[in-house]
């Protein structure tokens, strides 16, 4: 149960790991490989997926990310600035970046579709300061060909100095990004484009016929969000 306990900072992953191990043990019992499951009843809480950081919390996390060393500090900064999934940020490659745009190739996003994401000036600055260790911006320790994967320990160290911030996950930063886009008046279909959501306000037949990229609208949105974050840090 050490593995499951180590995932206490990511309740959803902890729950998935527990279910997977329990299912495997039950399969072993049914096939006569073991007499009884060695997986005890585990009481763990799963935080509802509706957590949004308020302005004070976001300010604190963002300021900590600005001071926290590579690679986790810049990862959190980009998570806040872009709203992308942590796995997508960890997989970022220099060959995907074209000046002020990230072009996620097919197969590297959750929905397996190409995703073109405009970057704000601040996000470009963050990327420009990342050490050049090869194509991957955030390689795993000791393996430059694999993306960063030290989530648990790094986040635990990152959160140790945070004050007045309730428990949160990196995915909550994505949800916070979406909420703040709405607060800034960004149309929901533009936010969904930024987040690379397939199902949403433009779906079904409308999605088939609507081939507009919304790139100009997305650039306007990320610029407004960049200004919002700057005001948040320097009111």
Round the mean pLDDT to the nearest integer and report it: 86
Number of helical regions: 11
Content of β-strand = 5-15%
**Which structural category do the helix and sheet elements fall into?**
mainly alpha
Write the H/E string, N to C: HHHHHEEHEEHHHHH
Based on CA atoms alone, the radius of gyration comes out at: 20 Å
List low-pLDDT spans: 202-211
Tell the overall outline: globular
Distance between the termini: 46 Å
Strand line-up of the largest beta sheet? 1-2
Strand elements, count: 4
Q: What's the main sheet like?
A: 2 strands, antiparallel
Helix content: 40-55%
Mind explaining what this structure looks like?
The protein has a two-stranded antiparallel sheet. A two-stranded antiparallel ribbon has the order 3-4. The model is unreliable at 202-211 (pLDDT under 50). The protein has eleven helices and four strands. Helices cover 50% and strands 6% of the residues. By secondary structure, it is mainly α.
Quick overview of this protein structure:
By secondary structure, this protein is mainly alpha-helical. Helices cover 50% and strands 6% of the residues.
Keywords:
235 residues, two-stranded antiparallel ribbon, 6% strand, globular
Task: Break the fold down into its secondary structure elements and pairings.
Blueprint: H1 2-5, H2 11-30, H3 55-67, H4 72-82, H5 86-90, E1 101-104, E2 115-118, H6 121-128, E3 139-140, E4 143-147, H7 151-159, H8 170-183, H9 188-195, H10 204-209, H11 215-233
Helix pairs in contact: 3-4, 4-6, 4-8, 8-9
